[in-house]
């Protein structure tokens, strides 16, 4: 066993990476690159002052050695006694957290050439770490090694090295610190976030006191000195300003939200961002700057005030790469709320293609001319009615007309025919999972993010394949090991479903009665959907008529999918409603950004799949899945109201296919006024025949509080499974 172990160690050591003086003295900053390989940010590199050994106070050196490696001056890089002692302490539970198996020199090596990812915690890595530690000990003095370590460690808040930490936390240089301050800094590298004295003073105090106790054991200080230091509050003399150290990340106003999400994705992969990595992202800087400019300073968009917010995501429809992301507007808070990935706001009628009509085509073989009923409807088992934007009923109309005009009742009836379980499966195939079971009300509103919405609509664009959205394409570790990332597509729906939904969604932007005409980019092949959410009944009298809480637009071409949310962070505060005219702002953002990023890109229409058949209905080209030219019986619940007498049916998801009658076409019956006790939940585009495109639609029935629409919330990713493969090269 000894010979085997020695041989294995020798084998691993022979393949160990080189460790240079530059690596030992570097600031360990992580660099982020855009899709073109241009550096867009350096994490922490600007927040370090290097201090030479002769300028490091003896008390700090003794504090670091006492807490990190008591036998530092006795071993030669690896300490067998320390390893055995740490193992015994861990087994008996007697350790106070002061002992670990790695020496201070090994920690320096880890910070200089290895990552902290879980995948790197292997026997090979530990063997190489030990071998390099021995080499470092043979090449440098103990004083130099301690100097390297004190200048390299991460101290939280984007600060590297203890000299800069002294200036950040106390506005003093190291030579002017007191014993309790030295102890705090010496203990912070173990967990810089947890031991932040500003945010977690209780944990910082405990850690500082552990350092003081360790110093007593090594006879660096007396018990009385330790006690006096412990009597000092950990918050004493903390600086209220940080003139020396800057923000946690050197970032620009353009990429703040994108970079924040990139760091979260990096950490999800098991990496710490302060480890000298090279992180290559999918960011298209040109698209990102345009999205920022349109969201903040576009003179053609009449933003009501600086509190009005935006959350938007641009995704490449053919691979899931997130190429741009905007998490807010008119905010100076670095790494603040990223509204592009928040899931606390209902998506409104943008849910209809992915929860109602998409599943209807996929599972029930609805044709685009499927007759759907816009007649009085009450949610089964309740007394809550659903209303449309004009508070009228149109009788039996086609699915195409219902989707283009974003009428609520036909959408809910369609979902009832499909069945919520099948609709939930359809959403799962689009990467969405929910903490609570969905309900019938969610057919006109889902709690999802702009990132999730853009990724789901991308599947309509590319013919039915879902790609989980992702920001990082490659990570290069300090030792040169490279990890490349991409997402494998997953079939979410048939090409027929994707094509037929896309064909109908074109009308949302081109039809005179479409709800999204303000988003149309002239000459561009595109499709999209509007969505708004209405205030609950008990709040309607506090806001102007036709006001909404949220306004969305999600659209796509064959290249990109862009989803935009607009509204206020606190929609129930005074003057925090979205007026009817302001609901088109989301469409205007889409139009300006999509028009820009589509320049110099192929502009082609979608190709009709071989299993989709075109037919003429009343002068309108309609489509059906080959073999299913008939229409499906509507088995949704029906009511007798306002002169409408319709047969009652079950809410089963079964369907009966019948042949269409001679007079069936895309035309609708005469609109008939209905009665309502509350404000209608959707608005039709205003202006001459809807051409102005200033209208909206809404996500929920007027009798339902959209803040709790019966559907669960989603996590930030909304994904049930990670469909991507991580390929290591």
UniProtKB/TrEMBL annotation:
Catalyzed chemical reaction(s): Preferential cleavage: (Ac)2-L-Lys-D-Ala-|-D-Ala. Also transpeptidation of peptidyl-alanyl moieties that are N-acyl substituents of D-alanine; [GlcNAc-(1->4)-Mur2Ac(oyl-L-Ala-gamma-D-Glu-L-Lys-D-Ala-D-Ala)](n)-di-trans,octa-cis-undecaprenyl diphosphate + beta-D-GlcNAc-(1->4)-Mur2Ac(oyl-L-Ala-gamma-D-Glu-L-Lys-D-Ala-D-Ala)-di-trans,octa-cis-undecaprenyl diphosphate = [GlcNAc-(1->4)-Mur2Ac(oyl-L-Ala-gamma-D-Glu-L-Lys-D-Ala-D-Ala)](n+1)-di-trans,octa-cis-undecaprenyl diphosphate + di-trans,octa-cis-undecaprenyl diphosphate + H(+)
CC per GO annotation: outer membrane-bounded periplasmic space
Keyword Transferase: yes
Keywords recorded for this protein, A-Z: Carboxypeptidase, Cell shape, Cell wall biogenesis/degradation, Glycosyltransferase, Hydrolase, Multifunctional enzyme, Peptidoglycan synthesis, Protease, Transferase
GO MF term set: penicillin binding; peptidoglycan glycosyltransferase activity; serine-type D-Ala-D-Ala carboxypeptidase activity
Origin: domain of life: Bacteria
Region annotation (Disordered) ranges: 224-246, 626-729
Domain Penicillin-binding protein transpeptidase: 311-594
Span of domain Glycosyl transferase family: 37-215
Composition-biased stretches (Low complexity): 635-654, 665-682, 694-707, 714-729
One Pfam short name: Transpeptidase
GO biological process terms held by the UniProt record: cell wall organization; peptidoglycan biosynthetic process; proteolysis; regulation of cell shape
Sections of the chain in a coiled coil: none
Family: In the C-terminal section; belongs to the transpeptidase family. In the N-terminal section; belongs to the glycosyltransferase 51 family.
Protein's recorded name: Penicillin-binding protein
